Amino acid sequence: LLGTGYLYRQNESRQIGEIIKEYYQILDYDFAVLPHIERIDRALHAGSTDENLPFQREHIISAGYATYYWEEALMFLKWDQIPKLKDTFLKNLVEFEKYGGQYVELEGLEREIEIRKNDALLEKNLPYELEKNPTSPHLVLKQVSTVFAGPIGVILLLFFLGTTLIREKEQKTLLALKTQPISPKGLYGAKLMSIFVFSGVYLILVFLVGIFLPWLIGDHSLRLDYPQVVFKGDEVVAVSTLTYVLRVFALFMCGLIFAYSLVMFVSLRMKNTFNTLLLTFLILAGGFGLTSLVPMLEHPLNPFYLLMMNENLSAQAPGLKDGLYLLVSLGYSFL
Known about the structure:
Elements: H1 2-13, H2 15-31, H3 34-45, H4 53-75, H5 82-98, H6 108-124, H7 137-148, H8 151-160, H9 164-170, H10 173-178, H11 184-217, E1 227-232, E2 235-240, H12 241-267, H13 273-293, H14 303-308, H15 311-314, H16 321-334
Antiparallel strand pairs: 1-2
């Protein structure tokens, strides 16, 4: 609750700065239009016979008009008009290049992402939003889920839930449990299951707080179908915010299978809580650091990559590969 409130207030305080930054980005698009118009006009006045030049001129001028009205809509906070203006701008760029022009200010993958995201907004009739420092419930939920279902969430849950076994060893209650007709696998499995139940409650709280806090104190409506751009191989696709968040939660739970198994493995070999947490966090920190330094280790077979929840992992579309993460986590857990 405190973390979500802090993120929301921080985002709210940065809204004006984000609008100004966005405005200057559109200005860059606008200014990049002028050299093309001047180049085409010079060629036409020189008597060029290139039949594509008039079409280039038509579309690049239309793109320039779109940026002008786009700037105006942004400054007057007319968020519902921006997707249509942006669509006009992007479509004219495509047509401009179809007739032989080249607009380098927005090209390649960056333009493809913008087109796919804007098409999804138009398809769902949704307004444009500032996503870097959001204040709407659905985008705050995305931000909160990425934060609290990542390394921070792992540390919190291991600290509060991961020491169950070692505390029972310290309090000598584990010895009493071992006198019962329960196999060690059944005992440790039951403890893991109880920990996962509480972890599920934690994720439900993250979800509810991430939605309702900005909804209560903000003025945006909740739209869980707001599109998020992700990658399916080399293809750019859009998924709903709900799908994005649920995938993050699912991968987080897969990572926790490994993390809880690790802390239980360490607990069986340590005598106190402090040493257990210290060694566990040192192993996790070493795994995180090595994975960050060696790109080759960003692979489903590496459980530390799953726990890091970096942008490369969260920006992938749901697919069969996610099942591999679960199988790998279960494999390490059994080991």
